[in-house]
Protein backbone atom coordinates (compact mmCIF):
# COMPACT_ATOMS: atom_id res chain seq x y z
CA UNK A 1 0.00 0.00 0.00
CA UNK A 2 2.85 2.38 0.85
CA UNK A 3 4.48 1.66 -2.51
CA UNK A 4 1.22 2.36 -4.34
CA UNK A 5 0.60 5.62 -2.48
CA UNK A 6 4.18 6.78 -3.18
CA UNK A 7 3.81 6.23 -6.92
CA UNK A 8 0.36 7.86 -6.89
CA UNK A 9 1.49 11.08 -5.18
CA UNK A 10 4.67 11.30 -7.26
CA UNK A 11 2.50 11.02 -10.36
CA UNK A 12 0.25 13.80 -9.06
CA UNK A 13 3.28 16.02 -8.33
CA UNK A 14 3.93 16.38 -12.07
CA UNK A 15 0.32 17.20 -13.02
CA UNK A 16 0.29 20.75 -14.40
CA UNK A 17 -3.51 21.09 -14.36
CA UNK A 18 -3.67 20.23 -10.66
CA UNK A 19 -0.80 22.63 -10.00
CA UNK A 20 -2.78 25.47 -11.58
CA UNK A 21 -5.84 24.54 -9.55
CA UNK A 22 -3.77 24.42 -6.36
CA UNK A 23 -2.63 28.01 -6.87
CA UNK A 24 -6.26 29.09 -7.00
CA UNK A 25 -7.17 27.08 -3.89
CA UNK A 26 -4.35 28.57 -1.83
CA UNK A 27 -3.41 26.35 1.11
CA UNK A 28 -6.86 25.08 2.03
CA UNK A 29 -5.93 21.40 1.88
CA UNK A 30 -3.38 21.17 4.64
CA UNK A 31 -0.35 22.67 2.89
CA UNK A 32 -0.20 25.42 5.53
CA UNK A 33 0.91 22.64 7.92
CA UNK A 34 4.21 22.27 6.04
CA UNK A 35 4.90 25.66 4.42
CA UNK A 36 5.57 29.00 6.06
CA UNK A 37 3.11 31.02 4.02
CA UNK A 38 2.55 32.26 0.50
CA UNK A 39 4.94 35.22 0.93
CA UNK A 40 8.19 35.65 2.82
CA UNK A 41 6.66 38.34 5.02
CA UNK A 42 4.11 35.75 6.21
CA UNK A 43 6.97 33.41 7.12
CA UNK A 44 8.96 35.94 9.19
CA UNK A 45 7.02 35.46 12.47
CA UNK A 46 7.38 31.70 12.14
CA UNK A 47 11.12 31.92 11.48
CA UNK A 48 11.46 34.21 14.49
CA UNK A 49 9.59 31.70 16.65
CA UNK A 50 11.71 28.79 15.42
CA UNK A 51 14.90 30.75 16.16
CA UNK A 52 13.65 31.51 19.67
CA UNK A 53 13.06 27.78 20.18
CA UNK A 54 16.69 27.07 19.26
CA UNK A 55 16.28 26.10 15.60
CA UNK A 56 18.14 27.41 12.61
CA UNK A 57 16.19 27.71 9.36
CA UNK A 58 16.65 27.49 5.62
CA UNK A 59 13.95 29.08 3.47
CA UNK A 60 12.93 28.00 -0.01
CA UNK A 61 10.85 30.13 -2.37
CA UNK A 62 8.82 27.37 -3.98
CA UNK A 63 8.87 26.95 -7.72
CA UNK A 64 10.58 24.78 -10.31
CA UNK A 65 10.73 23.89 -14.02
CA UNK A 66 10.53 27.53 -15.15
CA UNK A 67 10.70 27.90 -18.93
CA UNK A 68 10.25 31.69 -19.19
CA UNK A 69 13.07 34.18 -18.63
CA UNK A 70 10.75 36.73 -17.01
CA UNK A 71 9.52 34.13 -14.51
CA UNK A 72 13.11 33.15 -13.69
CA UNK A 73 14.05 36.79 -13.10
CA UNK A 74 11.06 37.19 -10.82
CA UNK A 75 12.35 34.27 -8.73
CA UNK A 76 15.74 36.00 -8.53
CA UNK A 77 14.12 39.22 -7.32
CA UNK A 78 12.16 37.29 -4.69
CA UNK A 79 15.32 35.53 -3.45
CA UNK A 80 17.23 38.81 -3.17
CA UNK A 81 14.37 40.53 -1.32
CA UNK A 82 14.17 37.56 1.06
CA UNK A 83 17.92 37.75 1.70
CA UNK A 84 17.56 41.43 2.56
CA UNK A 85 14.66 40.64 4.90
CA UNK A 86 16.64 37.90 6.64
CA UNK A 87 19.40 40.41 7.30
CA UNK A 88 17.04 43.23 8.28
CA UNK A 89 15.14 41.10 10.81
CA UNK A 90 18.37 39.40 11.99
CA UNK A 91 16.96 35.95 11.36
CA UNK A 92 19.10 32.84 11.78
CA UNK A 93 18.31 31.55 8.31
CA UNK A 94 19.98 30.33 5.18
CA UNK A 95 18.37 30.04 1.76
CA UNK A 96 17.76 27.07 -0.52
CA UNK A 97 17.10 27.48 -4.25
CA UNK A 98 16.02 25.22 -7.08
CA UNK A 99 18.01 25.99 -10.20
CA UNK A 100 15.10 25.10 -12.48
CA UNK A 101 13.23 28.04 -10.93
CA UNK A 102 16.15 30.30 -11.92
CA UNK A 103 16.42 29.21 -15.55
CA UNK A 104 18.46 25.99 -15.56
CA UNK A 105 16.24 24.51 -18.28
CA UNK A 106 16.60 27.68 -20.36
CA UNK A 107 20.38 28.07 -20.41
CA UNK A 108 23.46 27.49 -18.27
CA UNK A 109 24.63 31.06 -18.75
CA UNK A 110 21.29 32.42 -17.53
CA UNK A 111 21.22 30.36 -14.35
CA UNK A 112 24.84 31.26 -13.59
CA UNK A 113 24.02 34.95 -14.06
CA UNK A 114 21.08 34.61 -11.68
CA UNK A 115 23.05 32.69 -9.07
CA UNK A 116 25.84 35.29 -9.19
CA UNK A 117 23.27 37.97 -8.31
CA UNK A 118 21.86 35.91 -5.45
CA UNK A 119 25.20 34.76 -4.03
CA UNK A 120 26.82 38.19 -4.18
CA UNK A 121 23.93 39.66 -2.18
CA UNK A 122 23.95 36.71 0.25
CA UNK A 123 27.72 37.07 0.70
CA UNK A 124 27.22 40.73 1.59
CA UNK A 125 25.06 39.65 4.55
CA UNK A 126 26.90 36.44 5.48
CA UNK A 127 24.11 34.13 4.33
CA UNK A 128 24.68 30.66 2.87
CA UNK A 129 22.72 29.50 -0.17
CA UNK A 130 22.20 25.81 -0.95
CA UNK A 131 21.45 24.55 -4.44
CA UNK A 132 18.66 22.03 -3.98
CA UNK A 133 18.96 18.80 -5.93
CA UNK A 134 16.19 17.90 -8.36
CA UNK A 135 15.53 14.82 -10.51
CA UNK A 136 18.46 12.75 -11.78
CA UNK A 137 18.28 14.13 -15.33
CA UNK A 138 19.30 17.54 -13.97
CA UNK A 139 21.86 16.29 -11.44
CA UNK A 140 24.93 16.68 -13.73
CA UNK A 141 24.00 20.26 -14.65
CA UNK A 142 23.33 21.26 -11.03
CA UNK A 143 26.65 19.86 -9.83
CA UNK A 144 28.45 21.54 -12.74
CA UNK A 145 26.92 24.90 -11.77
CA UNK A 146 27.83 24.27 -8.12
CA UNK A 147 31.49 23.60 -8.96
CA UNK A 148 31.67 26.74 -11.07
CA UNK A 149 30.15 28.88 -8.31
CA UNK A 150 32.20 27.25 -5.54
CA UNK A 151 35.42 28.47 -7.15
CA UNK A 152 34.30 32.04 -6.40
CA UNK A 153 31.91 31.78 -3.44
CA UNK A 154 32.36 30.12 -0.06
CA UNK A 155 28.70 30.68 0.89
CA UNK A 156 27.26 28.03 -1.41
CA UNK A 157 26.34 24.40 -0.76
CA UNK A 158 24.45 21.69 -2.59
CA UNK A 159 22.60 18.41 -2.06
CA UNK A 160 23.41 14.75 -2.69
CA UNK A 161 20.67 12.10 -2.88
CA UNK A 162 21.51 8.63 -1.60
CA UNK A 163 19.02 6.82 -3.81
CA UNK A 164 21.11 7.60 -6.92
CA UNK A 165 23.81 5.15 -7.93
CA UNK A 166 26.09 8.02 -8.94
CA UNK A 167 26.12 9.77 -5.56
CA UNK A 168 29.18 8.03 -4.10
CA UNK A 169 31.28 9.17 -7.07
CA UNK A 170 29.75 12.64 -6.88
CA UNK A 171 30.90 13.02 -3.27
CA UNK A 172 34.41 11.99 -4.34
CA UNK A 173 34.35 14.48 -7.23
CA UNK A 174 33.22 17.30 -4.92
CA UNK A 175 35.86 16.56 -2.25
CA UNK A 176 38.45 19.00 -3.69
CA UNK A 177 35.88 21.81 -3.39
CA UNK A 178 35.53 21.37 0.42
CA UNK A 179 31.78 21.19 -0.06
CA UNK A 180 28.99 21.97 2.37
CA UNK A 181 26.61 19.11 1.52
CA UNK A 182 23.06 18.32 2.55
CA UNK A 183 22.70 14.54 2.38
CA UNK A 184 19.19 13.21 1.73
CA UNK A 185 17.53 10.02 0.58
CA UNK A 186 15.74 11.62 -2.40
CA UNK A 187 12.13 12.40 -3.25
CA UNK A 188 11.72 12.25 -7.04
CA UNK A 189 10.39 9.43 -9.18
CA UNK A 190 13.41 7.76 -10.77
CA UNK A 191 14.01 4.87 -13.14
CA UNK A 192 15.66 1.74 -11.74
CA UNK A 193 18.63 2.36 -14.05
CA UNK A 194 19.40 5.55 -12.10
CA UNK A 195 18.33 4.82 -8.53
CA UNK A 196 18.28 2.02 -5.99
CA UNK A 197 14.77 0.54 -6.01
CA UNK A 198 15.19 -1.04 -2.54
CA UNK A 199 14.81 1.11 0.59
CA UNK A 200 17.50 -0.89 2.38
CA UNK A 201 20.06 0.02 -0.30
CA UNK A 202 19.08 3.69 -0.13
CA UNK A 203 19.52 3.65 3.65
CA UNK A 204 22.86 1.86 3.45
CA UNK A 205 24.12 4.34 0.89
CA UNK A 206 23.03 7.30 2.99
CA UNK A 207 25.02 5.99 5.94
CA UNK A 208 28.00 5.48 3.64
CA UNK A 209 27.76 9.05 2.31
CA UNK A 210 27.37 10.53 5.80
CA UNK A 211 30.52 8.75 6.94
CA UNK A 212 32.50 9.73 3.85
CA UNK A 213 31.52 13.39 4.00
CA UNK A 214 32.18 13.72 7.75
CA UNK A 215 35.51 11.89 7.65
CA UNK A 216 36.53 14.00 4.65
CA UNK A 217 36.32 16.87 7.13
CA UNK A 218 33.61 18.86 5.37
CA UNK A 219 30.53 20.46 6.92
CA UNK A 220 27.66 18.00 6.72
CA UNK A 221 23.90 18.42 6.93
CA UNK A 222 22.13 15.13 7.57
CA UNK A 223 18.63 15.76 6.25
CA UNK A 224 16.44 12.91 7.42
CA UNK A 225 13.53 12.20 9.75
CA UNK A 226 14.72 8.60 10.06
CA UNK A 227 15.86 8.02 13.63
CA UNK A 228 18.14 5.22 12.46
CA UNK A 229 20.08 7.74 10.34
CA UNK A 230 20.19 10.24 13.18
CA UNK A 231 21.38 7.64 15.69
CA UNK A 232 24.00 6.44 13.19
CA UNK A 233 25.31 9.99 12.77
CA UNK A 234 25.46 10.59 16.52
CA UNK A 235 27.36 7.35 17.05
CA UNK A 236 29.77 8.17 14.21
CA UNK A 237 30.63 11.67 15.43
CA UNK A 238 31.18 10.39 18.96
CA UNK A 239 33.43 7.59 17.70
CA UNK A 240 35.57 10.01 15.68
CA UNK A 241 35.38 12.98 18.08
CA UNK A 242 33.80 15.22 15.47
CA UNK A 243 32.68 18.54 17.04
CA UNK A 244 29.00 19.46 16.95
CA UNK A 245 29.79 22.59 14.96
CA UNK A 246 30.90 20.44 12.00
CA UNK A 247 27.47 19.00 11.25
CA UNK A 248 23.77 19.58 11.66
CA UNK A 249 20.48 17.77 11.30
CA UNK A 250 17.93 19.15 8.88
CA UNK A 251 14.22 18.38 8.91
CA UNK A 252 11.15 19.65 7.14
CA UNK A 253 8.87 22.11 8.83
CA UNK A 254 5.86 20.31 10.27
CA UNK A 255 7.49 16.87 10.34
CA UNK A 256 8.67 15.03 13.49
CA UNK A 257 8.36 18.10 15.72
CA UNK A 258 9.11 16.20 18.94
CA UNK A 259 12.22 14.62 17.45
CA UNK A 260 13.42 18.06 16.32
CA UNK A 261 12.94 19.47 19.83
CA UNK A 262 14.63 16.51 21.50
CA UNK A 263 17.75 16.97 19.36
CA UNK A 264 17.95 20.67 20.16
CA UNK A 265 17.66 19.89 23.88
CA UNK A 266 20.61 17.50 23.51
CA UNK A 267 22.71 20.32 22.08
CA UNK A 268 22.66 19.40 18.41
CA UNK A 269 22.25 21.92 15.61
CA UNK A 270 18.88 21.44 13.93
CA UNK A 271 17.90 23.40 10.83
CA UNK A 272 14.28 23.52 9.70
CA UNK A 273 13.62 23.53 5.95
CA UNK A 274 10.83 26.07 5.57
CA UNK A 275 9.34 26.53 2.10
CA UNK A 276 7.02 29.38 1.20
CA UNK A 277 5.23 30.64 -1.89
CA UNK A 278 2.27 29.97 -4.16
CA UNK A 279 3.93 27.09 -6.03
CA UNK A 280 3.45 24.69 -3.13
CA UNK A 281 1.67 21.88 -4.97
CA UNK A 282 4.59 19.78 -6.30
CA UNK A 283 6.46 20.09 -3.00
CA UNK A 284 3.36 19.05 -1.04
CA UNK A 285 2.70 15.99 -3.21
CA UNK A 286 6.30 14.79 -2.82
CA UNK A 287 5.99 15.11 0.96
CA UNK A 288 2.84 12.96 0.85
CA UNK A 289 4.69 10.43 -1.29
CA UNK A 290 7.62 10.26 1.14
CA UNK A 291 5.56 9.34 4.16
CA UNK A 292 1.92 8.15 4.09
CA UNK A 293 1.37 9.63 7.58
CA UNK A 294 1.71 13.06 5.99
CA UNK A 295 -1.68 12.51 4.33
CA UNK A 296 -3.19 13.28 7.74
CA UNK A 297 -2.15 16.90 7.28
CA UNK A 298 -4.24 17.15 4.13
CA UNK A 299 -7.26 15.42 5.66
CA UNK A 300 -7.10 17.69 8.70
CA UNK A 301 -7.06 20.69 6.43
CA UNK A 302 -10.11 19.50 4.50
CA UNK A 303 -12.17 18.44 7.54
CA UNK A 304 -11.47 21.65 9.43
CA UNK A 305 -13.10 23.77 6.71
TrEMBL record:
The EC number(s) this enzyme carries: 1.5.5.2
InterPro entries given in the database record: FAD-linked_oxidoreductase-like (IPR029041), PRODH_bac_arc (IPR008219), Proline_DH_dom (IPR002872), Proline_oxidase (IPR015659)
Catalytic activity line of the entry: L-proline + a quinone = (S)-1-pyrroline-5-carboxylate + a quinol + H(+)
This protein's record includes keyword Oxidoreductase: yes
UniProt keyword Ligase, yes or no: no
Cofactor: FAD
Domain Proline dehydrogenase: residue ranges: 47-296
Pathway: Amino-acid degradation; L-proline degradation into L-glutamate; L-glutamate from L-proline: step 1/2
Enzyme class, first EC level, given as a word: oxidoreductase
Keywords noted in UniProt: FAD, Flavoprotein, Nucleotide-binding, Oxidoreductase, Proline metabolism
Protein's recorded name: proline dehydrogenase
Organism this protein belongs to: Rossellomorea oryzaecorticis
Amino acid sequence: MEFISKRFFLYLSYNKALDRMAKRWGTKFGANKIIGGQTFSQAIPLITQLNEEGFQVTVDHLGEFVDCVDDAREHVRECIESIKAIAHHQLDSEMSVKLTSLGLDISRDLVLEHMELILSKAKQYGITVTLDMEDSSRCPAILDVYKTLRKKYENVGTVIQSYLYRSDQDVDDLHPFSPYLRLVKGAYKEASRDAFPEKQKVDENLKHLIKKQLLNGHYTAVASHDEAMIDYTIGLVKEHNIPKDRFEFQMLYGMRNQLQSDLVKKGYNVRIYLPYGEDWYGYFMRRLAERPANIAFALKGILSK
